[in-house]
Write a structure and sequence with these properties.
It is found in: Membrane. By secondary structure, the protein is an all-alpha fold. The protein contains eleven helices and no strands. The chain has a domain of 72 residues.
């Protein structure tokens, strides 16, 4: 990210958060998303992988705002995206009839949710240090499980954070149970739903913790949040108007087509693209302006959550 001379001086004086006054990776992926979206009717669901990465980068952008020292490296972040994309491909191939795949995927999903919750609750400082022997490591792990999980759940040190993380885990476990029971045919959209819900949960967690820390939402980010919610609601309305299906034959898919609703040329799916582009624009503005109230606050005075 680029910053001005003023921002560099603020950093040297220990002022404000690290200045990320641009969204080059996010905007780059949004531009690249236009290419697979253009070829959607020839190669369906190619653009979904870019949507995974945009949602993941948005979560990383939020996390690195308060944790610049423990943020994931670019190599590990993009390697994680590659693993998710591989799982999505395996899900499309084996997810329709393979119960074994859903069991393995649900276990990975639940364990990943618990690991990320631990990372967020302890602010990246959770470690299991023990002797070199395997038994010593297991003994230390059991002790940590008792002191930090069983006792902490009954008397949590960070009550707000614990409640919000419990809600997030319940949502993710509900996704895992839903996948095991119903085994949705469109696995790529199922994964995308998980990413979007987790992004919304983390954004809600961030805003709630920000307000609980006596910080303010300035008019511009507040307007962007409201505009994002309104435009996304309108966009999703048109998105769920089923006009075609890549799982059916071309003749069967054409039977779902409807007359154009905008200027006699654009149908519901085109309107979805227009509105979702505007919604993504406002979403990025939310990420860029959310902490504008901390522009002149020293970093050692800013709460970490």
């Amino acid at each position: 990210m680029q910053c001005s001379i003023r921002d560099s001086c603020q950093l040297a004086l220990g002022l404000t958060l690290l200045p990320h006054f641009s969204a080059h990776p996010l905007s780059s992926f949004l531009s690249l998303l236009a290419v697979p979206a253009f070829t959607f009717y020839c190669v369906p669901s190619v653009d979904t992988s870019f949507m995974y990465m945009i949602a993941g980068l948005c979560m990383l952008k939020l996390y690195q705002t308060r944790h610049p020292d423990i943020n994931a490296s670019a190599y590990s972040a993009y390697a994680s995206f590659a693993v998710v994309i591989c799982l999505a491909v395996l899900g499309v191939v084996f997810g329709k009839n393979g119960m074994w795949f859903w069991v393995i995927f649900s276990m990975i999903h639940v364990l990943a949710s618990l690991a990320l919750s631990t990372q967020i609750y302890y602010m990246g400082r959770f470690k299991i240090d023990g002797p070199d022997s395997d038994l010593g490591i297991f003994r230390r792990a059991a002790m940590v499980l008792y002191t930090d999980c069983i006792q902490q759940c009954s008397r949590p040190m960070y009550m707000d954070r614990m409640v919000l993380l419990i809600v997030g885990n319940l949502v993710n476990w509900s996704f895992a149970i839903f996948g095991l029971v119903y085994r949705p045919r469109d696995f790529a959209s199922y994964i995308l739903g998980i990413f979007i819900c987790n992004l919304l949960l983390y954004l809600a967690f961030y805003i709630i913790m920000k307000l609980r820390s006596s910080e303010k939402l300035l008019p511009i980010p507040l307007f962007c949040i409201v505009a994002t919610a309104v435009v996304w609601a309108a966009a999703l309305y048109f998105f769920f108007q089923t006009l075609s299906s890549w799982e059916e034959t071309p003749a069967e898919s054409r039977e779902k087509n409807r007359p154009c609703i905008l200027l006699g040329f654009f149908d519901d799916h085109d309107v979805w693209h227009f509105l979702s582009a505007a919604a993504l624009f406002f979403s990025f503005l939310v990420l860029l302006t959310l902490d504008d109230d901390l522009d002149t606050v020293r970093r050692d005075k800013i709460p970490v959550f």
